[in-house]
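Morning!

This is the sequence you dropped in the shared folder:
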Amino acid sequence: MRHSEAIALAYFVYLAAAAFVRPLSAGRRAFVWASTAAVVAIELSRPTTALHIRDWLPAVVILLAYFASGAFYVAPSRRVEAWLADWDRRLLGDVTFDRCPALLRVYLDIVYDITFVLVPAAFAVLLWTGHAAMTDRFWTIVSLAEFIPFATLPWMQARPPWAIEPPRPADATSVRRFSLYFVDHMSIRANTFPSGHASATAAVALALWPASGVAAAIFAVLSLSIAVGSVVGRFHYAIDAITGLLLAIGIWAIVAVLAP
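The structure's back. C-alpha cells below.
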C-alpha cells in the first residue's frame, strides 16, 4: 500500500470514529460510514487495480472526503465564528475590499472557482512531464494538505464570511453571482480551518517543483491568487488562508525530510 493510500484509509477511519461521538442525524452518520466502507474497499483493492486508474483514484477519494467531512457540519459555533472574525479584525483592520478593482475581483473569483480543477490538472502535468514515479509523493503531500483542514470540521464549526456578511455592491456582477451560487449549492457551506483551498493549491505547487520549476511557479501564482481571493471574496477568513499556506509548506518540508 502506498503512503498516500494509507493516509486516506486512516483519515476515513478517523471520520467513522468521529461519527460515533458527534451528534449527527442517522442519515449523515450512515453517509460517513458508507463513505468509509467505500474507501476501505478502494484502498484494499488498489494493488490489483489497473495502474492508470490507481494513480488517479486519490482525486476521487479527496472529493469524497470533502463531502463526508461536511456531513459533520450541523450548526455554527458562535464562539468559533467570533474567534475567526476577531482574527480578521487583527489582520485586516477596517479593510472591506469594496474598492478592489473590478477586473482583479473577477480574476480572483474565477481562480477560486476553479480550485477543484487545479489538483487533477497538476497531477496531469506531473505525468505529462514524465514523473509518474513521483505519484505517491505528490498525493501524499496533497492528501495531507486536504485532510488536515477537513479533519477540523467535526470540532470547529463555523459559517464562511459570505454566509454571514450582508451583500455588497460588487456581488451584483455575473461572475460574482456564479461564485456565490456555486459555494451555496455545490459546497458543504461550512468554513474549514485552515483553508483547504489555500493548503491544497499550495501543496500541488510544492509537489510539482522537482518535476517542473515552470509548472510549479505557475501553480504557485494560482495558489497565492486563490488564497487572496478566498479572503477578498469572503469565502474564508484571513487566518484560514494564512494557516492553509503555512500548513502546505510544513507538510512539504516534513515529507522532504522523511522521504527525500
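Headline: Residues 108 and 229 are 5 Å apart (CA to CA).

More detail when I'm at my desk.
O.
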